[in-house]
Structure prediction request, 216 residues.
Amino acid sequence: MSIRIVIADDHPVFRSGLRALLEKESDFEVVGESGTGLETIRLACEKSFDVLLLDINMPGMTGPAIAEDVLKKCKHVAIVILTMYDDEYYLQELFKIGVRGFVLKKSTGTDLIQAIRVAYRGEQYIDPSLTSYLISPYVGDLKKKKDSRKNLLTQREQEICSFLAYGYTNKEISDKLFISERTVETHRSHIFSKLDLKSRAELVRFAIDNNLMKLP
Prediction:
């Protein structure tokens, strides 16, 4: 029985190369491709498949948002995230959502094939170069004490903090919340100042620790 796979990535050349690699495996069958978040969700409703290879950066929606939506519609689907970035904070959040695999795009084809097989069996797979994150105090610690600094943020700032943590740009946030880009930038500045943050990685860590990785 074939493992039916959908490839979701916004680069057609990358998808083509990935399809060629996967179809060399006798038990793999690529049954669909998508280049946007909405198209990926539509495929989840229309196609019958087992594994979704999902780029974490997709036009229109973030990878975590797509993963969450797909799993609501197709609980049986095993999602393997493909990314260029070794971000331990996204790693934690994606596994909390229900993603089963996390593979870096710079990894070998053998690693990806193994990830697909492992995820298909219902197990979790983490790229070998990310194994050090397994002992990180931020991975798998779902009972971490909340950071009291959350109370320093207004409701609107918490909303914007969530969008920023997911990687939305100022323009995308302004479109989502129907406010100006300048207003978004002002809120962003206030967030970093109030929380004494120095980088986006620190913001993502704060958002995860305070349950702000849920988009409004």
